[in-house]
Design a protein that fits this description.
The chain has four helices and four strands, in the order ααβαββαβ. By secondary structure, the chain is α+β, with helices and mostly antiparallel strands. A four-stranded antiparallel β-sheet has the order 2-3-1-4. Helix 3 packs antiparallel against helix 4.
Length: 117
C-alpha cells in the first residue's frame, strides 16, 4: 500500500489495489529437492525409518516453508522443500536432513543424502 501512496495514488484506491493484489498475486516459491536413503536392518527397521521420516517432516514446522516427503521405493525417499527464499529453503533442508540422519543413526540404522539439481 505504501508504494502506491508514494506513487501519487489516492489512499482510497491504494487500499483497494493492495487488497486485490494480496488476493490474486502469488509470490513464487523456491523448490529444492534431494534423495534420502535410509536403511535399518533391525527387526523394527520399518518403524525406525518411519520415526526418522516423521522427525524430518516435523523439523520444518514453519508457516512459510513446506516440506514434502515421497517414497521412491525403499530405501529411497524424495524430500522437497518449498520456501519464499532460497536461503530459507536451504536452511530447512539442511535441518531436515540432519534430523533424519541423526535419528536413523541413533536407532542403529544408516543413511545418506544426495541433493538433486
Amino acid at each position: 500500500e505504501k508504494p502506491l501512496l508514494e506513487a501519487g495514488i489516492s489512499e482510497e484506491w491504494s487500499k483497494v489495489v493492495a487488497e486485490l493484489a494480496k488476493l490474486y498475486v502469488e509470490i513464487p516459491k523456491v523448490r529444492i529437492k534431494g534423495v534420502l536413503e535410509l536403511t535399518c536392518l533391525k527387526r523394527n527397521g520399518v518403524e525406525v525409518i518411519k520415526k526418522a521420516l516423521i522427525a524430518t517432516r516435523n523439523a520444518a514446522k514453519n508457516g512459510d516453508v513446506n516440506i514434502e516427503i515421497y517414497t521412491m521405493g525403499a530405501p529411497r525417499y524424495k524430500i522437497e522443500v518449498m520456501a519464499k527464499e532460497y536461503k530459507q529453503a536451504e536452511n530447512v533442508m539442511k535441518e531436515a536432513v540432519n534430523t533424519a540422519l541423526t535419528v536413523i543413526k541413533e536407532e542403529g540404522g544408516s543413511g545418506t543424502f544426495t541433493r538433486e539439481k
